[in-house]
Amino acid sequence: MRIQGRVGFSTKPLVSGAGRLCGLLLVVISFLGVVSPEQASAIGDAARGRIVFALAAGCGCHTSAEGPVGAGGGEVETPFGKFYGPNITPDQTTGIGGWTDAEVDAAIRNGITRSGSAESAAMPYPAYAGMTDEDVADLTAFLRSLPAVQRVNRRAEGELPMAHVAYRVWRWLFFRPGPRLVRAPTMGIERGRYLVDHVSLCADCHTPRTRLGVADGARYLAGAAHGPGGDPVPNITPHKTGIDDWDIDDIVNILTYGRLPDFDNVQGAMAEVVDGHAGGPGYKDAPAGDRRAIAEYLKTIPPIDNKIEDK
Where does residue 68 rank: exposed (0-12), middle (13-18), buried (19+ CB within 10 A)? Predict the structure, then answer.
């Protein structure tokens, strides 16, 4: 979840990063082999997967402004190049129609593409690594329920030299997945923590990064002057330079209606993740209890003094 102000989280922007998926759900697509739809069919529940998709801000990196949902083309600007979210519809040749569930899971939670290479850190797999088995299975089932769209994926622009080696080294140095839960917490602050850190990715966007692209845990959720796409990302800790004067209902209203406490509306990327991308589900379509759990958790984290100025 990234709040972006009138480009809106007033402390003004909340932009999604989860808008980043979806900061890139699958950054690199390879086309080795084809399996039958029966072999590829997910064991999860597509209806529950639609909720996961909504909580992940509609996987916006995988949907261009004109749509269709999941057909790829969303831009992700980083200091290490510009990336385009790939096609995650069940098309057999340009999407994930020929992928097994295990291959989809590896791309989401392990940062490994179907060909066995490491993904760029533009795909926030270190955060998604904490998603539960059940949520990944459900999300996969939902992706397989999308209309198949044949659209060729765009290559990244301006990548590092020998990028495939750099991504492998980065993963070796910085990827430390913890134990995986089979099922997620179902309510309250622990549910909110799980969503903020591993599904909605508020932490991925609102936590500043080092020059090597690693999240700075000492400034968890404290915002950054130059976040994804170069935009400022506000401090969402309960400090006076963050959201100290917001109550839980204020945060819930943003996630539900895109309405700030001063009655202004969020715009830009935050509006898209609330409403959904190109007609797909967004935060507003998630269960009310999940939006409140996120709000409750954000009010419990340690406050950090970090004033982020709007552009």
Answer: buried
The answer to whether 306 and 239 are in contact (CB under 8 A) is yes
| Residue 178 near residue 128 (C-beta atoms within 8 A) | no
Q: What is the CA radius of gyration of the chain?
A: 18
| Residue 310 domain-assigned (yes or no) | no
Contact 109, 96 (CB under 8 A): no
Task: Look at the alpha carbons of 218, 53, 123, 136 in this order and tell me if their dihedral is positive or negative.
Answer: positive
* Residue 58 domain-assigned (yes or no): yes
Bridge-partner residues for 224, per DSSP? 233
Q: For the chain, how many structural domains are there in total?
A: 1
* Pairing relationship of beta strands 75-78 and 81-84 according to DSSP bridges: antiparallel
Q: Answer yes or no: is 13 within a domain.
A: no
Within-domain flag for 99? yes
pTM: 0.85
Q: Which tens digit of pLDDT belongs to each residue from 83-111?
A: 999 999 999 999 999 999 999 999 999 99
Give the domain extent around 284: 18-298
CA angle (78, 131, 194) in 5-degree steps: 90
* Among 60, 59, 71, CA closest to 95: 71
Tens digits of residue pLDDT in 226-254: 877 778 888 999 999 999 999 999 999 99
